[in-house]
Inverse folding.
């Protein structure tokens, strides 16, 4: 059965800390992996990763994919209280019309 | 501005009643999806549609129904057969690249 597992499920840090969120997957016909940030309601897109070893960056956030070991990490440096959110990892399966499988999410809380 | 609109944002229902959640998009996307979100379980796919007048069951379709009569609209009906309908429901659309664009969600509470 296809599955996506995120860890940790929750995390509390202080402003300025660096955090690493993990996403591992076992999915047939992998096409790409996506990261989303969900603050209150609608998840917002962060990154799409399709190739191994190529880091994607956006400000203090970065992400990388390892297709051999079947995982991805999302790094956030110099965390701010505005980074508090649920971070969702999802995998796109190529043979099922682009359906996504989501992990459980990591709830990040950044304290002042 | 282009986007996805879900309504209502909050909905209360008595047991045994059917309710319909609305989802409209003006992004001209072919594919639309309905997800259910429960605490600690991430997002689970209910139904999806890749083209008008066609839709497929997702992982947890029992107790739900959908229609796709127009490209812009993909309403979800939560029927009385759904045993645990209290949840946060998210509608999304995609242009086929895999990236989903989400609506603001509808929170359904069964009293």
């Amino acid at each position: 059965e296809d599955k996506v597992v995120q860890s940790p499920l929750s995390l509390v840090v202080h402003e300025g800390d660096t955090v690493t969120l993990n996403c591992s997957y076992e999915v047939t016909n992998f096409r790409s992996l996506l990261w989303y940030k969900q603050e209150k309601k609608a998840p917002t897109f962060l990154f799409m990763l399709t190739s191994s070893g190529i880091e994607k960056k956006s400000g203090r956030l970065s992400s990388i994919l390892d297709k051999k070991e079947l995982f991805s990490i999302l790094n956030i440096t110099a965390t701010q209280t505005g980074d508090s959110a649920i971070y969702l990892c999802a995998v796109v399966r190529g043979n099922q019309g682009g359906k996504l499988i989501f992990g459980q999410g990591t709830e990040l809380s950044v304290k002042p | 501005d282009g986007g996805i609109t879900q309504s209502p944002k909050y909905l209360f229902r008595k047991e045994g009643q059917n309710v319909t959640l609305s989802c409209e998009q003006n992004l001209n996307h072919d594919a639309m999806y309905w997800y259910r979100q429960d605490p600690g379980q991430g997002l689970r796919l209910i139904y999806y549609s890749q083209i008008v007048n066609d839709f497929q069951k997702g992982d947890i379709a029992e107790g739900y129904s959908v229609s796709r009569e127009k490209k812009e609209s993909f309403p979800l009906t939560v029927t009385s057969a759904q045993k645990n309908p209290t949840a946060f429901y998210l509608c999304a659309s995609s242009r086929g690249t895999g990236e989903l664009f989400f609506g603001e969600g509808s929170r359904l509470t069964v009293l």
Remarks:
- Chain B touches chain A through 25 residues (CB under 8 Å).
- Chain B has a mean pLDDT of 92.
- The CA atoms of residues 59 and 82 of chain B lie 14 Å apart.
- DSSP finds no helices and eleven strands in chain B.
